[in-house]
Amino acid sequence: MIRQISFVKASGAGNDFVIIDNHEGLLQCDFSKLSRALCAPHIGIGADGLLVLDPALGSDFRMQYYNADGSSGGMCGNGGRCIARYAHLSGLTGVEMRFEALGHVYEASILGSKVRLRMKDPSGYRPAMKLTTNTEALTASFIDTGAPHAVIFVEDTGQIDVSRLGREVRHHRSFAPGGTNVNFVKATSRTSIELRTYERGVEAETLACGTGSIAAALVSALERGIDLPVRVRVRSGEDLFVDARKSEGSYTDITLEGGADILFAGVVKIDDIECTIAAINSL
User: Fold this and answer.
1) Mutual orientation of helices 77-89 and 210-224 as an angle, nearest 10°?
2) Neighbours of 250 (CB within 10 A)
3) What are the pLDDT digits (tens) for 252-279?
4) Cα angle, residue 235 at apex, residues 190 and 186 outer, rounded to 5°
């Protein structure tokens, strides 16, 4: 049976997502398989990931996030900002909201067309790791900012073969078994950096990465003396802003701020994925 599912396409600084509004909890589906179908370029809607807005107890809603390949790769900062703006524009929340993702409650504030999201404290910081790839020796730092990230400082982000080198580091044995996202970073001033990110689950460079921007900003502050707040120029040419409070050699109270745009809405027909829908809600 062919099912019709309403969706919204959104972009957080170039990081693009399909959003499905399931706030009444009526849609039961294999969202991993659905993500692969909807996010596929050329034959689907095309996106870096799928966001599902579900009902939640004790917060305004719950966010499920699936990478374009159907995997669940941790928290998505830009996705969180996009779904927060969607929830506000749809009348589900006010300008301040709380939502659950992966068992943690996040706080978001709507600032016009921008969204500020309060993130989890980082964990697992490992500085100056020596890595040998198929072609070269590298120094990388690792930090988990809701998703795992390797941070590599470079002289020129424009000269990096992000696809090749990002893929090699993403699968490096030092980050087994789950692998890591990979960020190539250049400091451009005392308070700004440039960033290019290879994202696992997308398995390609993306135009922006929220948790990657946080990882790059925090490691730049810890190792290169960059001052917070940090302006992060991502591949799309847009800026994200990362702020935090230093505490005992690490950082807490981390926020990610930037544009979150609702691009268009539509209806997709699904005929090869088992979905049960009690009712269809228009977006």
Assistant:
1) 130
2) 15
3) 999 999 999 999 999 998 877 877 766 4
4) 30
As given in the structure block, the two tokens for residue 248 are 């005992």
pLDDT given for residue 277 in this prediction = 64
Q: 209 catalytic, yes or no?
A: yes
Residue 194 to residue 192: CA distance in whole angstroms:
7
Judgement on whether residues 68 and 136 belong to the same structural domain of the protein: no
- Domain check: are 54 and 76 in the same one? yes
Query: Which 8-state DSSP code applies to residue 42?
Result: T
Q: Domain count of the chain? A: 2
- Nearest Cα residue to 51 out of 25, 91, 21: 21
Tens of pLDDT along 200-254? 999 999 999 999 999 999 999 999 999 999 999 999 999 999 999 988 778 999 9
| Pair type for strands 49-54 and 61-67 | antiparallel
* 82 has catalytic annotation: no
- Considering the candidates 29, 39, 76, 82, report the single residue annotated as catalytic: 76
**Residue 53 belongs to some domain of the structure:** yes
Domain-embedded: residue 33: yes
Mean pLDDT, rounded, for 89-106: 97
- What is the length of the chain? 283
What pLDDT was estimated at residue 3? 79
pLDDT given at position 282: 37
Distance CA 170, CA 174 (A): 9
Query: Same domain for 56 and 142?
Result: no
Determine which one of 29, 39, 82, 209 is catalytic: 209
What's the rounded mean pLDDT across residues 119-143?
A: 95
Instruction: Tell me: do 39 and 107 sit in the same domain.
Output: yes
